[in-house]
Amino acid sequence: MEALPPVTAQTFDEAEAEAIFAAILDQQVGDAAIGAFLVALSDRGETASEIAGAARAMRARVIPVAAPDNAIDVCGTGGDGQHSLNVSTAVAIVVAACDVPVAKHGNRAASSKAGAADTLEALGLNLAKAGEYAAQTLADIGIAFLFAQSHHPCLKHIAPIRKALGRRTIFNLMGPLANPAGVTRQLVGIARPAYVPIYAQALMRLGTGRSFVVSGDEGLDELSLAGGNEWADIAGDTLAMKRVCAADAGLDTWPMAAIRGGDAAYNAAALRRLLMGLTETEQDRAYRDAVLFNAAGALMVAGAAADWREGVEEAAEAIDKGLAKGLLDCWIKACS
């Protein structure tokens, strides 16, 4: 087993970080040493070069999937502790219904009750078939679910270490940067507002066409309706830090409690109601607005909307015309 270098105030450059995480992912380091290293790195604070280097090591070991050149991803780092309904999963379906191919990267829940995989499964999607037919459904329907555990086998031995630690580590940050479809356009939500510029710089180092990195002020790993949001707008090698709130998109403000989720069955039922255009309850309306807000960001990233309000209008139309529901039903049938 290799020994990991000590974590000090001196940070690792990108090449050093890639080499360290290559050893970790290739099981050349003991579990106790990995755990201690991850905790020390988190306590000191990960840098853009370290995040990028770690993501490069993960990318080098991914099982890839073919995707259209204009495919995007909408994915959060997780770990925000808010236990909200599945917003990015719904956003993926709505945006795909707007004729933007979405290669949705995701996993089962770690800290919440229902992750993207859990909720899609509860909706009736056969995850095994969805993985098998991912390239085909991306090409034919415009959507695919890239189950992290299927595309990143190098993470299998890391999972119990992370679970034992019971805290966020750099692995939360690496996932969205290692999409198996190699997308160059992303809407990435992170649960640490102060880390938005650092994470954005890591994404720039890895290369991106147009991406947004967002974080709600309360530590939400997506755009929040409850208050303000940190927003990094990355276009190639240009980075602009901005602020955005629900009103900028013409949407109402809602407290986090309004979109509190439950288990997979509960969240799947809420998502079905959303796609059916139901707005009878406060949760229905708040969830719709949360999805519209984040879908607008994704459509801007894809070049399919000029601004937040136009993006909201397009996403709302995809729901209200039944296009999003029809796409989900078609996807489930294709993977049956």
From TrEMBL:
Mg(2+) 2 binds at residues 221-222. Anthranilate 2 binds at residue 162. Keywords: Amino-acid biosynthesis, Aromatic amino acid biosynthesis, Glycosyltransferase, Magnesium, Metal-binding, Transferase, Tryptophan biosynthesis. Anthranilate 1 binds at residues 76, 107. Binds 2 magnesium ions per monomer. Belongs to the anthranilate phosphoribosyltransferase family. This is Anthranilate phosphoribosyltransferase. It comes from Novosphingobium ovatum.
